[in-house]
Amino acid sequence: MTMFGNDIMLHDGQELELQIERTCIALGLDCKDDYQVRLFARDVLQNIAALRKAAHEGDMQARSKVELYGLAMLMHKTNAATFGSNYLNQFAKVTEHQSAWAAVAQALWKELEARNPDSIEP
């Protein structure tokens, strides 16, 4: 990726982090509360189909949960494109200015790992 391309991806990452923070606030989700974020991750992973259906039917709480899940996945894709596929090896450094995303992503990974410990690498 060119230097210009990386600048765009870094800007996109900053915009995504801001939107993740806003969505967490809208949900009343405190990203510094590991337990609360883990409950969110569990709820989303267990109920994604029902949440999507409810969101489609106008449930704004469900829509925000689905949106936050999607934003977390998009941020992962953006970070991989910006920093390379091995960015998880430098997770603390890469996520220094992405605390909301880091909290949500780590909770999702931990929840996935608890469900299937053989298939997830943090």
Strand percentage lies at under 5%
The span between the termini is 25 Å
What is the element string, with H for helices and E for strands? Answer: HHHHH
The major β-sheet equals: none
Helix coverage percent: over 70%
Silhouette: globular
Count structural domains: 1
Task: Tell me the structural class.
Answer: mainly alpha
Give the low-confidence spans: 1-9
Mean pLDDT: 82
The rounded Rg comes to 15 Å
Outline the fold blueprint.
Blueprint: H1 3-27, H2 34-56, H3 60-83, H4 91-94, H5 99-115
Give the tags.
122 residues, mainly alpha, 5 helices
Question: Can you put this structure into words, describing what you see?
Answer:
76% of the residues lie in helices and 0% in strands. With 122 residues, it is an all-alpha fold. The protein has one domain (3-115). Mean pLDDT is 82; it is low at 1-9.
In short:
With 122 residues, the chain is mostly helical. It has one domain. It is built from five helices and no strands.
